[in-house]
Amino acid sequence: MAILLGDVGGTNARFAIGRNGVIDAATVTRYRGDDFQTFDSVVSRFLQDQGQPRITSACIAVAGPVSGGRAVLTNRDWDMSEDGLARLTDADNVRLINDLTALGYATASLQGDGLRVLREAPIDRARNGQSLVVGLGTGFNVCSVRALPGGGIAAMEAEEGHTQLPANIYRRLVDLLGAEAADRFFSTEELFAGRGLSHLHAARTRGVPARGEDIARAAESGETEAVATYDLFTDLVGLLCRELTMRFMPLDGLFLAGSVGRSIADRMERFKKTFLAEPYMRHTPDNTPVFLILDDMAALQGCLAAL
């Protein structure tokens, strides 16, 4: 029995075959999206490369919204549907899920080098079987995870990136940048995805937006303006995560993911100051451990768990 697993983003698509409840590491293959005209063509190529195994089930994680059995990538015109994938693979059980949902399903199996503890919570803390994955990368989204009484977990879909900024974060931007500049960050994703860091730096310095990775590199070298932007951005991420802990109560753990999340992990002392700054209901963030997902196979593991 072979299970098709996939992690499809705007730049790359990665696939693997699962057998007997585990991923066959020898089958993990990455393809450049630019090399294929359609989603079906890259799936067909992978199955061909694997010797056309008999696929019984398939689950694909997609870096974009999934609704009604159809998925949309934000920067690639691929037609992706559960019906189409079922016809292509002849699989009986097919699912398309958001990539953050896949990471949510993966949280129960993350361990070792695949997970880094960023903030310990009190040993005697309260626990409630709830976790939250916060994806800070090319886009922004979250996935709330709940342990089920009979075993297993439920990973909930969300579109948190398209919500409006929390009022306390918006007010801070107004104080620092002025209302006109603050209004450019009209959604949570506009500030906290990778492009948000770029636009925040441009608003602060009144310059041209630079790539997030260039700002990170400049900050690491000690360039004054880049350091100031990253300090502010880290403060704001701490404030946002505080708000998210109040909304989702993830007392079993808040899991950061994505390239921007990894850069924040190196600034945890600053993150914790704003994460714990508000005395009102502080016991909730105070009892929430924070982790960083490092496992590149996490989304594939999540697809396997989702099935």
Q: Write down the overall mean pLDDT.
A: 93
Strand content: 25-35%
Helical content, roughly?
A: 25-40%
Structural class, by secondary structure, is alpha/beta
Keywords for this entry:
307 residues, 6-stranded mixed β-sheet, 5-stranded mixed β-sheet, 39% helix, globular
Detailed description of the structure:
With about 300 residues, this protein is of the alpha/beta class. The chain has helices at about 40-50, 80-90, 100-105, 165-175, 180, 190, 195-205, 210-220, 225-250, 260-265, 270-275, 285, 300-305, and strands at about 1-10, 10-20, 20-30, 55-60, 65, 70-75, 75-80, 95-100, 115-120, 130-135, 140-145, 155, 255, 290-295. A six-stranded mixed beta sheet has the order 9-14-13-10-11-12, sandwiched between helices. A five-stranded mixed beta sheet has the order 3-2-1-4-8, with helices on both faces. Helix 3 (about 100-105) packs across helix 13, helix 7 (about 195-205) crosses helix 9 (about 225-250) and helix 9 (about 225-250) crosses helix 11. The chain is globular, with a radius of gyration of 20 Å.
